[in-house]
Amino acid sequence: MDHPVELRIPVEPISLHAQRDLLDGPSQDATNASNSEERFSVLELPPVDEGFKAWLFCASACALETFIWGWNNSYGIFQEFYSTHTPFQSSSLVSISAIGTASLAIQYIEIIAVIAVCQRYPEKVKPTMWIALLICVTTLTISSFASQVWQLIVLQGIIFGLAAGVLYAPIIMWLSEWFVRRRGLAGGIIFGGAGVGGFVFPLAIGACLDNIGFRWTMRIWAVILGLSCSLALFGSNPRVPVQRLGTNRPKSLWPAGMTDSKALDKLATNIFQALGFFPVSIFISTYTSALTTVTLSPTVVLALFNASSVVCYILFGQICDSYPYATVILCSGLGSALGAFFLWGFATNLGLVFAFALVFGGLSGGFPGIWPAAATEIAGSRDEHTSLAFGAFGVAKGIAAIVGPIIAASLHDKNKYGLAKYGAYGFLKVEIFVGVMAITTVFCAIAVAFISRAKHRA
Questions:
Q1: Is 369 in contact with 191 (CB distance < 8 Å)?
Q2: How far apart are CA 350 and CA 382, in angstroms?
Q3: Which of 438, 302, 313 is nearest to 368 (CA)?
Q4: pLDDT confidence band for 252 (50 / 70 / 90)
Q5: Per-chain mean pLDDT for the chain
Q6: How many CB atoms lie under 10 A from the CB of residue 455?
Q7: Higher pLDDT pick, 75 / 23
């Protein structure tokens, strides 16, 4: 009996001789037939790094990023609202922050598992994305009727986080199919969508919360999310058509080489960087509201914080396409440390808070722009492992998304909630913690550069 033949179509065009070598099966007739099919399929595939379909995918993926991760980046507005308005204002700050933290952490941590399953069952990916979108819309709509924080944690945090992660994760997998030489630039554009959403949504959501209240804000947002992501899904497709010619599909849940010392340093770098990033993204609105009574200021600060990351996402990605990404890590860590120690530390007026939001939000928020380069170095030419390496970075960041805010909340001294020359409103220890994590990222950058250089010499 003939064994099933799996058609493996490479990302970049290769010679016909190499195409024949990729076929796996003992039957000569089946091999010859598959050779003809493969030549046709390779010729029909849209080009990588260029062309309408590649950039349509990039734009559609950016739109999904905008509405999923831009929403996550806007949670600080909801946290401020929940802590000051009924029926949630009597709840602790830790429980309220758990809503956004749970959603973020789940989406990051589940990426690697979702990608592994998608690689195993590619024909089920697109239908699953539509189901996930339906769950997201339904969950947000139901959450508009919530009256207790635990209900928001379950709905907006856990269920929405799980569904949104499933909706978004295939984008990372398809990115490595559509882009090779410009993978860093394309990744930067896509990831920059989170900053765009993080700039626009706090302003829009803040206005809605003030004028129509929490419940109608959630219902309107659910409709907008459903319509916008539906349009984005039509343009979000794999470059390589789904093939069901065999059962020999990727089964690895963890990318090869990710447990090597040459890759563990990259995971450690992501953890330390994110440990310092998330406390700022969660508490910068709270700090601003303590500094001023102007209602709009916390919203504007959060919007600037997210918007500044857009430029760095794209800039970091483009730099990493041509230069060692360890240099970007070094600049990101050093600039973030200086911002935390000096700008935030001495921030006793809105001007310094705005400056800190721009500097830290850009240099620290745009850090994932180095992920395409780092993942490619780990995986080499195996695109399925590139996607899994992305997922591994997501796991690291997801863990930090849980741990970082918890550490920051425990370091926040409510007994010193007043203006001070340095470390105002009880945030002194939080600022030191954020700065130390950024300095640690600098040392990690040096280690990454040293190890990468040693690897290339070997």
A1: yes
A2: 48
A3: 313
A4: low
A5: 83
A6: 12
A7: 75
- For residue 392, give the nearest of 164, 174, 115, 112 by alpha carbon: 112
Q: Which residues contact 213 (CB under 8 A, 6 or more apart)?
A: none
Query: What is the pLDDT confidence band of residue 34, given thresholds at 50, 70 and 90?
Result: very low
Residues 6 or more apart in contact with residue 89 via CB below 8 angstroms: 82, 83
pLDDT at position 456? 61
CA distances from residue 233 to 57, 93, 117, 198, 427 in whole angstroms, order as listed? 9, 36, 19, 20, 42
Predicted local distance difference test score (pLDDT) of residue 255: 53
| Phi (first) and psi of residue 11, to 5 degrees | -70, -40
Q: 156: which DSSP letter?
A: I
* Burial degree of 300 (CB within 10 A; 0-12, 13-18, 19+): buried
Asked whether the CA dihedral 72, 105, 273, 119 is positive or negative, the reply is negative
Residue 190's Cα: distance from chain center in Å?
Answer: 10
Is pTM beyond 0.90 here? Answer: no
Is the backbone of residue 219 left (phi > 0), alpha (psi -120 to 50) or beta?
Answer: alpha
Length of the chain: 458
- Of 217, 147, 152, 179, which Cα lies nearest the Cα of 321? 179
Quote the CA–CA distance of 423 and 405 in Å, as a whole number.
17
Q: Which two tokens stand for residue 228?
A: 């916008």
- Six-digit token pair at 259? 């447990």
